[in-house]
Amino acid sequence: MCGIVGFTGKQQAAPVLLNGLSKLEYRGYDSAGLAVRDGESLAEVVKATGKLRNLAKKIDNGAALPGMCGIGHTRWATHGEPSQKNAHPHVSGNATGSASGAVESEVVGVHNGIIENYEELKAKLIANGYAFYSTTDTEVAIKLVDYYYKKYQLGPIDAINRMMVRVRGSYALALMFKDYPGEIYAARKDSPMVIGVTNGETFLASDVPAILKYTRDIYYIDNLQSVRLLPGEAHFYDLNGDEVEMESTHITWDAEAAEKGGYEHFMLKEIHEQPKAVGDTIASLVKDGRIDLTTAGLTKEILEGVSEIHIAACGSAWHAGMVGQYVIEDLAEVPVKVELGSEFRYKKLLLDQNALLIVISQSGETADTLAALRAAKSQGIRTLAVVNVIGSTIAREADNVLYTLAGPEIAVATTKAYSTQLIAMYALALAMADAKGKLEEKDYKYYIEELQALPDKISKVLEDKKRIQWFASKYYNAHDAFFLGRGLDYAISLEGSLKMKEISYIHSEAYAAGELKHGTISLIEKGILVIGVLTQEELMEKTISNMEECRARGAYLVGVASEGNYNVEDAVNFTIYVPQADGHFAGSLAVIPLQILGYYTSIAKGLDVDKPRNLAKSVTVE
Ligand code: G6P
After folding, report:
1. For the segment 1-54, what is each residue's pLDDT rounded down to a tens digit?
2. CA angle 523, 501, 112 (to 5 degrees)
3. What is the pTM of this model?
């Protein structure tokens, strides 16, 4: 959802900024731009539409842009179509948004997020003599800073703080002021931004991978804080303008974890990292043969007292919540309601005081999920965040945090983070079942063993990659696909269908198999792909019957089944087997071939797998 970088130091800024942006391209790739200052000279602004490589080409990979202080941006359009004019950086003056050139403006800036009251602010600024060249909310924010800067003449931090008091919405802003060469100013609310200081140089970015090459000691800027960056220095200020001390966090994961490491795409690499990601997450949650959630602050007493669970999340994380619902209800016998973050935030919340709200989020910054978390907190409900990104906003605001250990995930389509979210759901279900006395010791032991066997079984599924690749190369031109399943298989179908549509652009829907005949079956015709997830022994026959109804109408049937169920082969056209596992956890295996299918379908169509059109990895706007 837009990526920001900034640098001030002892080397040429443009190549550092381009490098940082290349690590953030997953956040948006409609257009990109840089503003760089060479000493006292005015900022030089260069923008290009499309992917980052267009910008890099324009400035000879940075060589053409001298100067050791600058800011950069890669955009995912919210206000205003993707265009040269709307690309960042934006300026406080009346620039036309020209292709490149030094700008006379007092303030130059880049922004991630949405300024909700931008129209009202724009009218105020127009009344004060400002003119606008773009249709972005960013230009409004920057001109507002300029307005306060000139009106009160109390310096950049004062102007930024006044802007923060006046605007509504979410933002991470990085600014340069004409009067302050070699300095960058930044501020944030609800959109992420991190800072690194090392060897007389200072780095700023929306996310850690962009600066990990330079330092592992990261400062997370707090909400409504502003920052002044000089070479080798970072000064933090609260909304009153008082300087505050901040502590850095040491990042332990390797920079290589955020590189492709020999794979053609991040998505393929991340698919292959799943045995490790799942294994690491299990290892962090199982101590001496028992689920131990004390690092998440969840004691047996707390779990025992939970009367009902609400899960709020978006996208794949919501799908992980759906799996959680089935498993928690079945094992722990606690009622679970799963809701989309975007819906939860606007409905009347009828929450029992002993309810637990679980929010699930890879990035820990999804705006709707964060809003759901805050809504529950405002009612005094305990909140638990299942999050991958350490130190993210959701992780910091929730009462309890259970970290998934997927490591950095770069491909827009999630794979390994989703798989680790499933593990978190299983662990919670088992811990809660144990706390509530719902499991006999021998069953508990069996489930732990089944859980710990998952990483090796996922590795086995990955060995079958070539068959799925072959299938994708034959059927990539399908127009429609339906993913069917019942119970947990339905929850997995939701994720399989999303993987297919988001990266291959094939229209795809997930359906509870029994519901298909209530209208949707009228869409089934010759050539449509129907993919049945068939891991739930007691429901499998019923789903196969529903698939038969589709075959009778011309559909091509694919079945994903557990090994041993060889009769599936007679019922469908193409079968994918996954190792046997306890039914509660079988989805962790069934989803793998569906991820691989989505990946190779996209490859067969020649699409940009890691950066599918119109999407962004973390969505920090409503
Ligand atoms: C975006 C991504 C999805 C992701 C969803 C929720 O839409 O493209 O892959 O599932 O956001 O993101 P989160 O970071 O909260 O898990």
Report:
1. 689 999 999 999 999 999 999 988 877 778 899 999 999 888 999 999 988 999
2. 135
3. 0.79
Q: For residue range 92-145, what is the model confidence (pLDDT) as tens digits?
A: 987 644 444 567 789 999 999 889 899 999 999 999 999 999 889 999 999 999
- Using a 6 Å cutoff on CB, does residue 317 contact ligand 1? yes
Cα of 350 vs centre of ligand 1, distance in Å, is 26
Closest ligand 1 atom number to CA of residue 616: 8
Distances (CA, A) of 33 to 12, 30, 139, 307: 16, 11, 14, 51
69 tagged catalytic: no
Query: Can you tell me the distance from the alpha carbon of 468 to that of 366, in angstroms, rounded to the nearest whole number?
Result: 32
Please say if 2 is a catalytic residue: yes
Distance CA 565, CA 182 (A): 67
For the chain, the straight-line distance linking the first and the last C-alpha, in angstroms and rounded, comes to 11
Non-local (6+) Cβ contacts of 287 within 8 A are: none
CB 618 less than 6 A from any atom of ligand 1: yes
- Detail the DSSP E strand segments found in 9-153: 31-37, 44-49, 69-75, 90-91, 100-102, 107-115
Answer whether 316 contacts ligand 1 (Cβ < 6 A). Answer: yes
Judging by beta carbons within 10 Å of its beta carbon (0-12, 13-18, 19+), is residue 339 exposed, middle or buried?
middle
